[in-house]
Amino acid sequence: MKMKTHLTAIFFFAVSLAVFAQNNLKLWYEKPAKEWVEALPVGNGRIGAMIFGGVENELIQLNEGTLWSGGPQKKNVNPDAPKYLQLIRDALAREDYKTATALCRKMQGYFSESFLPMGDLEIRHSFKGKANNYYRDLNLSNATATTSFDVSGVHYAREIFSTGADSVLVIRITSNKPGAITLDLNLKSKLENQIIPTGNDQLVLNGTAPLRVDPSYYNRPGRNPVLQKDSLGHTGMRFQTILKVVPEAGSVIADNDGIHVKDANALTIYLAAATSFNGMFKLPDTQGKKEKAIAQRQLKSALAKSYDELKQRHIADYQQYFNRVSLTLADTTNNKVNDKLPSDFRLKLYSYGNYDPGLEQLFYQYGRYLLISSSRPGGTPANLQGIWNKDFRPPWSSNYTININTEMNYWPAEVTNLSEIHTPLLKWIQDLSVNGKVTAKEFYKARGWVAHHNSDIWGMTNAVGNKGDGDPQWANWYMGANWLSQHLWEHYAFTGDKTFLKNEAYPVMKEAALFCFDWLVEKDGYLITSPSNSPENVFVTDKNEKYSMTEGSYMDIEIIRDLFTNVIEASEALNIDKDFRQQVIEKRNKLLPYRIGSRGQLQEWMRDYKEEDPQHRHTSHLFGLHPGRDISPLKTPELAKAANRTFELRGDGGTGWSKGWKINFAARLLDGDHAYKMIREILNYVDPVAGGAGGTYPNFFDAHPPFQIDGNFAATAGISEMLLQSHLGEVHLLPALPKAWPAGEITGLKARGNFEVNIVWKEHRLAKASIKSVKGNACTIRTDVPVQVEGVVSSQSTEGKYFLNTFSTKPGRVYEIKVVNQN
Questions:
Q1: Which of 42, 257, 403, 678 is the most exposed place for a label (fewest CB within 10 A)?
Q2: Average pLDDT for residues 20-36, to the nearest whole number?
Q3: At what angle do helices 357-374 and 343-351 cross, to 10 degrees?
């Protein structure tokens, strides 16, 4: 009875903390943003906005998720490419890396296109006097940003949200005195555009994106990096932005200089936007959607609702996703000061070593907020910067970098109960495979589909480089299709959706495996890849020469083994393709096995080469540890030991996203304290002007540097992995709990098998948990203490450290996991 009472107290304590935690999720600041990485992001998966919070002059930088340069992937880009493949393989077989590298350049296509900024909304107030009592915030609980201040005894407030329910950006400006709002509004764009006032209260910006924008790192002499139209007269996609102002009292007029509001009590600003993008395979000029009709329809629909109704619909739409997961990390010092500090100052203090679990749970939920805001069903996947970009030629084109970054964006999707948010990527992968089949045939005369290092909204699948200008150490990487296929399997593994597996996932996974059949070559009795590299690293030969292209880089082998395993299990789950399944099993058995090198590490290459940069940001050869499932301290202790040694040698440094990946590595190695160390490192304050090593900017964006959103997503995924793992066919509760988190609660996480999991822990041990079985699958839980489910007590596992409990479940039922009193 005492035990039951004790657990009940813990439960209610945790629930009260959880409610507080969800209601206290705000980034807030005492001054406006000067730099873009101080501004606050809002988004509905399509319209993104960065809010600076200025007083006299407010800047809101705008994006639309489909606004990219370019058009559909071209065919027959490099017809001579196939003749070089065997020459490259022959050169690599004789260790002539120089020749192989040069020949790889001859197998490249064009560069990817760029995600573009739509424009800027400028709001200029007419104030007399200085502002005081300034405040701005972003509330993660309702996806709303506010700015407020006082000028000359008048209190002004702005409230901004990008609503998925009504597909517009909404801005509400109020004052506490009548007639106090006088301001001017205008739209600007870096793209070719024309701005037209329509009526007394509206501006329309019509624009056209370029047909080609070269990456910012590619500036070939004599070549214009921007092409507005081609020789046939084709242009890039069209777009329209509509700005509508509805004042309460006062007057409003629109002219060629903008929209002018005078003496209003309050006003509501509506911004609608649309492009002519009509899918991956349609020309955006001649086959595009009617962007003007779409934008006008969205605006008309929003105007038919009151501001309060729009806001309520926005919050309900957003919270249906966000509220599924709550994280509470108990503050053992009961310190309330941290919550009263501005977020940038709070982050600085944390970087100096301040204890602040509230900041960690805020950062965790910020990752979920960003994913919900930049990826919605029916839209495009989150790109390298999510949905937010200010630059005409952004870093790395703000594209889909598929040698880790795009995949990393969606690591938290399934585990943090956002399966629907995963669907834009899954649909994009299916479309990408269509282009990938063309590339496999044209460049390699191979079956199946292939994708390389970079892609874009048009599904570009060739090795980039403008047919020879790309460095093979990153351009000529061949595993994009295989890695992306893991996301198709993971969506099934978490949801159990066999219709999706049969009709959408398995056909694409099978085609990826077919390419591997043709790509793998036999050497010394094993199947390896050739050519091959380890993104984006360089090895040193015995002759002290430095190269990247070789045979049998281990990341290739690990990704292919993961793909083959997933294809086998998918075929078994669907009870189809038995003959093909057997072929996959046979080839998987012949893949080059892991090798442990001279330093006790997992080898990165087939030969035990040293790295040019021993602390390179990519740790590609640990793919089998994460996000793969080959390596585990519980199942393959020797390989796990070598993986840990690799981790030690590579070190904890690196860019922001690299540190995010390392949280996941440490969690999979069941080393909670090391994972926590990486959390503290990724939450290192990076000055927006002075710069610094990979960490976090004042607005909590991940600093590569510069900004890449994947580090935010990897950190959220990594914290989830510390609290729940299910990749080994077991629901492992608290697998990597650090000493810094002695008590807390997580609710709503998902485990593979479609289980929804709640966990409460106290004094560094499991105190209470529950599992909801959505599909009614059998469940095995792994815990650090004995538990009982349905009255059955867990048995100690063969490892001795953990306890296992296997039980049958019924669909929709919640199963309570009770800790057995060990006293």
A1: 257
A2: 86
A3: 120
**Cα(794)–Cα(803) distance, integer angstroms:** 6
CB 151, CB 127: distance < 8 Å? yes
Q: What is the domain class of 81-109+418-640 according to CATH?
A: mainly alpha
Class of domain 38-68+116-322: mainly beta
Average pLDDT, the chain: 95
Write the pLDDT tens digit of every residue in 743-755. Answer: 999 999 999 999 9
What gap in Å lies between CA 662 and CA 29, rounded to an integer? 30
Q: Are 27 and 40 in contact (CB under 8 A)?
A: yes
- Predicted pLDDT at 299: 98
Assessment of whether the complete model's pTM goes beyond 0.90? yes
Residue 6 has pLDDT above 50, yes or no: no
State the pLDDT confidence band at 338, using cuts at 50, 70 and 90: confident
Q: What is the pLDDT of residues 501-550, one digit of tens each?
A: 999 999 999 999 999 999 999 999 999 999 999 999 999 999 999 999 99
Model pLDDT, residue 13: 42
**Backbone phi, psi, residue 573, to 5°:** -65, -35
Q: What is the pLDDT of residue 823?
A: 56
Beta strands 731-733 and 779-783, pairing class: parallel
**Per the structure block, which two tokens stand in for 113?**
């296109």
Query: The tokens of 796 are what?
Result: 């100690």
- Indicate if the alpha-carbon torsion angle 599, 602, 607, 613 is positive or negative: negative
* Nearest C-alpha neighbor of 627 from the set 752, 442, 536: 752
Strand partners, 806: 780
* Burial of 512: CB neighbours in 10 Å, binned 0-12, 13-18, 19+: buried
Q: Which residue(s) pair with 240 in the sheet?
A: 206, 274
DSSP run (H or E) holding 716: helix 710-723
Residue 229: count other Cβ atoms within 10 Å of its Cβ: 15
Nearest to 650 by CA among 692, 690, 689, 678: 678
3-state secondary structure 100-113: HHHHHHHHCCCCCC
Task: Provide the CA 748 distance to its chain's centre, in angstroms.
Answer: 20
Could you report the per-residue pLDDT of 440-484, keeping only the tens digit for each? 999 999 999 999 999 999 999 999 999 999 999 999 999 999 999
Q: For residues 749 and 724, is the Cβ–Cβ distance under 8 A?
A: yes
616 pLDDT tier (thresholds 50, 70, 90): confident
Closest to 605 (Cα-Cα) out of 614, 613, 597, 615:
597
Q: What is the phi/psi pair of residue 553, to 5°?
A: -65, 140
Q: What is the pLDDT of residue 718?
A: 98
- Which DSSP state fits 178? T
**Residue 520 near residue 557 (C-beta atoms within 8 A):** no
The conformational region for residue 763 under phi > 0 = left, psi -120 to 50 = alpha, else beta, is left
Residue 240 to residue 593: CA distance in whole angstroms: 54
598-611 mean pLDDT: 95
d(CA 710, CA 657): 6
Q: Which amino acid makes up residue 78?
A: N
**Taking phi first (over 0 means left), then psi (-120 to 50 degrees means alpha), and beta for anything else, what does residue 278 get?**
alpha
Number of H helices, E strands in the chain: 20, 39
Query: Which of these, 676, 683, 654, lies nearest to 349 by C-alpha position?
Result: 683
Query: How many residues appear in the chain?
Result: 823
Distance from C-alpha of 808 to C-alpha of 777, rounded to nearest angstrom: 7
Q: How many Å apart are CA 659 and CA 178, to the nearest integer?
A: 51
Q: Where in the chain is CATH 2.70.98.50?
A: 38-68+116-322
DSSP state of 73: P
| CATH 1.50.10.10 placement within the chain | 81-109+418-640
Q: Determine how β-strand 695-696 pairs with β-strand 795-796.
A: unpaired
Q: What is the 3-state secondary structure (H, E, C) of 378-417?
A: CCCCCECCECCCCCCCCHHHHCEECCCHHHHHCHHHHHCC
